[in-house]
Amino acid sequence: MSIQDIAIKPFAGQKPGTSGLRKKVREFQQPGYLEAFVQAIFDSQPALQGGSLVLGGDGRFFNREAAGIILRMAAANGVARCIIGSGALLSTPAASAVIRAHKAQGGIILSASHNPGGPDGDFGVKFNSSNGGPAAEGVTEAIYQATQKISHYRILDWPLPDLDRVGETSLGSMRVSVIDPVHDHAQVLQNLFDFDAMHALLKGGFRIAFDGMHAITGPYARRLLVELLGAPESSLLNCTPLPDFGGGHPDPNPAHAEELTALLNGRDAPDFGAASDGDGDRNMILGRNLAVSPSDSLAILAANAHLVPGYKNGLAGIARSMPTSRAADAVAAKLGLPCYETPTGWKFFGNLLDAGRITLCGEESYGTGSDHVREKDGLWAVLFWLNILAVRKQSVTEIVQQHWRQFGRHYYSRHDYEAVQSDIAADCMANLTKALPDLPGQKIGTLAITAADEFSYTDPVDGSISRNQGLRIICGDQARIIARLSGTGTEGATVRLYFEAYEPDPAGQQDDPQQRLAPLIDFAESLLGLRRQSGRSGPDVIT
Ligand code: VG1
Ligand code: CO
Predict the structure, then answer these.
(1) Which H or E run includes 100?
(2) Which end of the chain is least crowded, N or C, by CB within 10 Å?
(3) Distance of alpha carbon 395 from alpha carbon 344, whole angstroms
(4) Given phi > 0 = left and psi -120 to 50 = alpha, else beta, which region is 128?
(5) Does the pLDDT of residue 1 top 80, yes or no?
(6) Is the pLDDT of residue 18 over 90?
(7) What is the pLDDT of residue 489?
């Protein structure tokens, strides 16, 4: 058995984005590319030496190969124990649960989340810290710096143990624990929700449909929804994980989860629909003929949290990412809770959760979660909704409508312009940046602009500052326009535009969001010139 020290040169651009390093599979397959990034993790995270590392991924193309390389590198870099999901699988929230349950020093998650997979698709590597959450900016920066001065990587030249059989084994002097990928996560969820009440709901004829989008959540959904809650097997759609996600785009939104959306909009629809993404951290919630806006979902979970055993003693606070609608703020204000506004990306919730300042948090991008793990959690949100539905005995639509009547409705939409030429995207953002100082005082129809700025965030726990987190145009409590560049795309630049308008009057709460938001949408275009410059007639994806 020998440890090999292999010379390499640094690769340009190994800088983690919103959530880990995401690149085309082919880029990751270049000799030494994955190895360089992983070695940089070991070089910059000395606690892993002699410690435990959790490893698993969403099962996409290249997952198993990459896991094998990382396992042999971990052994060569002095990791004492590697805890790996069988088949090298772990959903992102499950990886977080495993890190916490086994008090590991960190974890490596192999996923490009909602990005498509397959040989021509995307791959990703993400490092999570000992709290189970995505590495904070300071850590990802240290990893990036290490990639830039790398000269060697270390790897053990030895055959891998059987990764498909649960049990204890070893690789060199490293202990390898192959675990059931579902167990720890299911355990955490069973402690939070009223499984008896949900079981009774389903037994009483309440019908659900869960779409795994051929990604990681299939086995998790089967355990939780079918085996524990007694839902019929036919409730599971696309729950066999495939390395290319069946050619689909594992992003749970009405645009990409077409089959499920059609089912819920069709005749004899189930009462409740849900889907999750590639790595199982996102969720979409559907009622009959209704897609719940993720921002509303966060607010509704917060307003009803007291109905759920794990949160019956109340919430410490709520946080949302900046572009997420202010629906959650309205609930926090009513409940007298602190509400934090963080930059996009789950890593920014970590400190608030660790410090006990918040219990629930969420993002407009179909992500919700709580302090039970340190990642957003798709099936957690599904169970949370089912628990509320079991207690309130109302339909999804009734719950949403009642919420709007009580708290007002925040009309909301996100427009994505994908794979825009990078220089055009930069130019449009520069146009808007230049316009910002003159905007306050101007009007968008009847709405007065009260502030316009570039969002920067000071972490209230450790004081770290994150600048350049998106451009905002704010019309008091009435409306907002936000523009930012995506940090997860792998082709050109993806521009995200976010629109929000508040309607307290129940008589005005039944409009079509796109129509309602049209003046904001037009105003944004007049400043950005994105359609004009990119030659597109509209966004690629509207959610
Ligand atoms: C997107 C979402 C962001 C989310 C991130 C990771 O980032 O907007 O809210 O945290 O994806 O989610 P960006 O930079 O492309 O806007 V996941 O499920 O892809 O890990
Ligand atoms: Co994801």
Answers:
(1) helix 92-101
(2) N
(3) 31
(4) beta
(5) no
(6) no
(7) 79
Q: Is 276 a catalytic residue?
A: no
Residue nearest to atom 11 of ligand 1 (CA): 488
Give the tens place of pLDDT for each residue, 445-465.
999 999 999 999 999 999 999
Q: What is the DSSP letter of 126?
A: E
Whether residue 53 contacts residue 108, with contact meaning beta carbons closer than 8 Å, is answered with: yes
Contact 262, 244 (CB under 8 A): no
CB 278 within 8 A of CB 114: yes
Instruction: Describe the strand order of the beta sheet including 471-475 as a list of residue ranges.
Output: 451-454, 471-475, 479-485, 493-503, 409-420, 541-542
Distances (CA, A) of 452 to 85, 319, 455, 466, 484: 46, 22, 9, 18, 14
Task: Check if the beta carbon of residue 286 is closer than 8 Å to that of residue 274.
Answer: yes
Residues with CB under 5 A from ligand 2 (ion): 113, 277, 279, 281-282
Pairing of strands 457-458, 290-291: unpaired
Decide: 110 and 63 in contact? Cβ < 8 Å. Answer: yes
Closest CA to 250 of 283, 295, 209: 283
Confidence of residue 238 (pLDDT cuts 50, 70, 90): very high
C-alpha distances in angstroms, 167 versus 74, 83, 88? Answer: 18, 10, 13
Q: What is the dihedral of CA 372, 373, 378, 382, to 10 degrees?
A: -10
DSSP string, 241-309: --TTGGGS----STTT-HHHHHHHHSTT--SEEEEE-TTS-BEEEEETTEEPPHHHHHHHHHHHGGGSG
Question: Would you state the structure tokens that stand for residue 287, as one six-digit string?
Answer: 């009622």
CA distance 485 to 464: 21
Angle between helices 294-304 and 396-407 (to 10 degrees): 80
Mean per-residue pLDDT of the chain: 96
Beta carbon of 487 within 6 Å of any ligand 1 atom: yes
φ, ψ dihedrals at 448, nearest 5°: -95, 130
d(C-alpha 493, C-alpha 23), whole Å: 13
Amino acid at 479: A
Closest-CA residue, ligand 1 atom 18, reads: 113
Nearest CA to ligand 1 atom 2: 365
Which tokens hold the place of 516? 């309602």
Residue 24 burial (C-beta neighbours within 10 Å; 0-12, 13-18, 19+): middle
Q: pLDDT tier at 74 (50, 70, 90 boundaries)?
A: very high
Q: Is 213 in contact with 223 (CB distance < 8 Å)?
A: no
Q: Which of 15, 19, 213, 279 to mutate to test the pocket of ligand 1 (most atoms within 8 A of CB)?
A: 19
Closest listed ligand to the CA of 277? 2
> Is the entire prediction scored with pTM above 0.90?
yes
Quick: pLDDT tens for 455-506: 999 999 999 999 999 999 999 999 999 999 998 878 889 999 999 999 999 9
